Amino acid sequence: MAMPPPPRLDGARVRVALAAPGDAAALLAFHKRNQSHLKPWSPPVPADFLTAAYWRRWAGAARSLYTQDHAVRLVVRPKAAPEAPLLGQVNFSTIVRGPQQTCTLGFHIDAAAEGRGLMSEALGLALGFALGPLGLHRVEASYLPGNRRSARLLERLGFRVEGRARDLLFIDGAWRDHVRCALLNPDPQPPPYALSAAATVPA
């Protein structure tokens, strides 16, 4: 499958774009100022997580991961001030093609930006890209049962709860259950390699 051009998606208030090496300093600053805000919902991080070197590697790998169809690492900025501090991140990881055409969604938003609909707008743009130009059929997400803000946001975006995964991730000192949910492509298509039924029947 030929990959579409790297995304740069503009909404009314936010711009969502593939991470680039020049975003490393802004990513580091985002995670430093949101360390306590994100800690209750996040798994353990590497020892060098809050260093410039880590985020240079992370941002520097974004384009190759995208062109290899492994992951889509996106940064969210204010549309009117693209040089302002990051509003958040959206990540599509574990992309699986073949008969599944699926991925896993993760996202973070700055504590100061919560409650303003900015992540809803950013996710709407990103999901439109994932289910449109990227050609995925299914986007999966999970959240801690107590994370009502994420639960409401995903529900508004059309995700439907499919069950509960026991001890899915080690978070805040213990293995934690997660609620599993998914969003399906509203215009489902067969995988691009699939042959028609007639073509598979011997003459």
Structure description:
The protein is built from seven helices and eight strands; from the N terminus they run E-E-H-H-H-H-E-E-E-H-E-H-E-E-H. With 203 residues, the chain is of the alpha+beta class. The chain has one domain: Aminopeptidase, CATH 3.40.630.30. An eight-stranded mixed beta sheet has the order 1-2-3-4-5-6-8-7. The model is unreliable at 197-203 (pLDDT under 50).
Short recap of the structure:
The protein is α+β, with helices and mostly antiparallel strands and 203 residues long.
Pick out its properties:
203 residues; alpha+beta; 8-stranded mixed sheet; 7 helices; 28% helix; globular; disordered C terminus
SSE order and pairing:
Blueprint (H helix, E strand, L loop, with lengths): L7 E3 L3 E5 L5 H10 L1 H4 L13 H9 L1 H6 L4 E7 L9 E9 L5 E8 L8 H14 L6 E6 L4 H9 L3 E12 L2 E11 L12 H4 L3
Parallel strand pairs: 5-6
Antiparallel strand pairs: 1-2, 2-3, 3-4, 4-5, 6-8, 7-8
Helix pairs in contact: 1-3
